[in-house]
Amino acid sequence: MIFQKLSIFNERDFLKAREIIRSADAAYTNFETLIRNNKGFPRYKKDPTAWMTSPRFVLDELRWIGFNLFSLANNHSMDYSEEGLMENLRVFEDSGVTHAGTGRNLSEARAPAYLNTEKARAALVALNTGGEDGCAGEAWGRIPGRPGVNPLRYATTAYLEKPDFDLLTGISRKLDLPEPREGRLRFLGSEFEAGDKADIRTAPYGPDLEGNLRSISEARENADFVFVAVHNHVKHRPGEMYFDDTLEYIAEFVETFSRAAVDAGADAVLGTGTHCLNGIEVYRNRPIFYGLGNFICQSYRSNPRPYDWYEARGLHGKTHPDESEAISLYPSLTGAAEERRIRRLTTSVVAEIMFDNGRLTQVVLHPIELPRHRLQGGRPLLASGSKADEILRRLSRLSADYGTEIEIDRGIGKIVL
Q1: How many Å apart are CA 302 and CA 163, to the nearest integer?
Q2: If pLDDT is split at 50, 70 and 90, which confidence band does 246 have?
Q3: Full-model pTM
Q4: DSSP string of 77-142?
Q5: Going from the N-terminus, what domains does the chain have, and what CATH number goes with each?
Q6: CA separation for the pair 319, 316 (Å, rounded)
Q7: What is the per-residue pLDDT across 304-342, written as a single tens digit (0 to 9) for each?
Q8: Minimal CB count within 10 Å: which of 155, 160, 205, 275?
């Protein structure tokens, strides 16, 4: 999330973080904003948290850092509707940088993008999870395709022990709602089944799973390395509060898809979206990063916000938009919970993945911190000492759930392969 210049800063730890990116043959980032050149209209959102828009120069700033692989698929891709997305796409196409994840129709959004380097050819397939963030549509007969994002939608099923399932069935009948069919009950928009224990399970939506796996297989035929970018906002236990303590645990359908992506030919799965670190899994000797956290997360307070933002906070009667400065995006978080949220937002890692003749040889984890300055913070500084160890220990704890061991030595993490 970049809105301001970075090339004006010269702190040693910032330039060291930049050098890690610049030293790579291929360097990936998720572009979670829009260069729309004042085109497009703000899309209506049920959750009016933020609408992203950035000046044209931010792409040059990211290239100055060293990025050459960009995902455009995320929950902000359609913030300014189809016209905003199309303008952002035009900017990236005119710049000649490798990008994936959005398009004029579903085939284009889902297609692999390719980066040719001196040593190898890399492919990128990028997608966004969820179902209400501007899914691209395919052309069909005389009906044109729909511009948008390459989606990975999912289905959620809640399992109840049989006595509880029967109780819910009785309530459904009293409300004159549909009867259970084939052991499944749809109740107030959710699917329920009888099971051995109470649980919530998620699974990828079949057509999205199959379509993305086809794109990965196509990329495997046309590139030396295939990277799959997954932008995900869905927690292990879907719920209303976004930045609570369950955010560090990923939904089951993302794990299912990520492993299937490796089976289809992905050399690494690169997760973003939660804005915090999530665990790392090494599956079939290929790394799956379920959440890499923030690399750049600048304040967007100075960006103009649509009327909807103010209305949702009771501020639409104010005469000056700046009066919203003190309004928290997540007002129900306070004290220790708010401090944990901020800490997660402002610490992450740069993952350096090394291959030799197609074989994974090393994964090095460089911890970074983002300064919290209200207006000029949000840029990556290489962490060191106790701060670096704290970040890596947290990541090690989350990765242990996947059987992954991380060695920590003098502020650097290495995955034991």
Answers
A1: 54
A2: low
A3: 0.92
A4: TTTTHHHHHHHHHHHHHHHT-EEESEESSHHHHHS-EEEE-SS-EEEEEEEEESSSS-B-B--BTT
A5: 12-152+215-333 (3.60.21), 155-195 (no CATH)
A6: 8
A7: 788 888 888 777 776 555 544 444 444 455 667 677 777
A8: 155
